[in-house]
């Protein structure tokens, strides 16, 4: 994926990225090996090939709720901030700056 992004910049291609929500679901399910990526990828392929007509009738809000529920565990709790502060105070500043930066990008993309 990294090489495709590197060479894609030469021809102005869209960047490739992995499935963030899929990774969250695998993590919550207790996945330990990369084989789970192959298994979940095959399930996604099966769903795309044979279940797409059924997905047409699912409201977008339901699909958004599935993604939000799978990603909600990744939101940092106050305990995480304390742990970062104990490791190094600089990490807190980096964390806040990066979150602000990415939320700004998301805001302008969705605007």
Report on the architecture of this protein.
The chain is mainly α and 111 residues long. It has two domains: 20-75, no CATH class; 76-111. 73% of the residues lie in helices and 0% in strands. The protein has helices spanning 2-8, 20-29, 35-50, 52-55, 60-71, 78-87, 89-110. Helix 6 (78-87) packs across helix 7. The longest helix has 22 residues, at 89-110.
- Per the principal axes of the C-alpha atoms, what is the gross shape? extended
Oligomeric state as shown: single chain
Radius of gyration: 18 Å
Return the structural class.
mainly alpha
State the low-pLDDT regions, or none.
none
Report the order of strands and helices.
HHHHHHH
Report helical residue fraction: over 70%
Average pLDDT, rounded to a whole number, is 76
Distance between the termini: 29 Å
Number of domains: 2
Q: Please give the number of β-strands.
A: 0
Main beta sheet:
none
How big a fraction of the residues is strand?
Answer: under 5%
Q: Count the helices. How many?
A: 7
What does the secondary structure layout of this molecule look like, with pairings?
Blueprint: H1 2-8, H2 20-29, H3 35-50, H4 52-55, H5 60-71, H6 78-87, H7 89-110
Brief characterization of the structure:
The chain is mostly helical and 111 residues long. It is built from 7 helices and no strands.
């Amino acid at each position: 994926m990294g090489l495709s992004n590197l060479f894609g910049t030469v021809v102005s291609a869209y960047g490739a990225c992995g499935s963030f929500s899929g990774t969250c679901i695998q993590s919550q399910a207790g996945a330990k090996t990369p084989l789970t990526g192959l298994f979940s990828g095959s399930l996604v392929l099966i769903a795309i090939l044979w279940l797409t007509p059924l997905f047409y009738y699912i409201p977008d809000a339901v699909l958004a709720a599935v993604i939000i529920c799978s990603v909600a565990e990744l939101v940092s709790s106050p305990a995480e901030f304390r742990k970062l502060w104990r490791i190094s105070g600089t990490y807190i500043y980096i964390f806040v700056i990066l979150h602000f930066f990415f939320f700004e990008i998301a805001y302008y993309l969705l605007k």
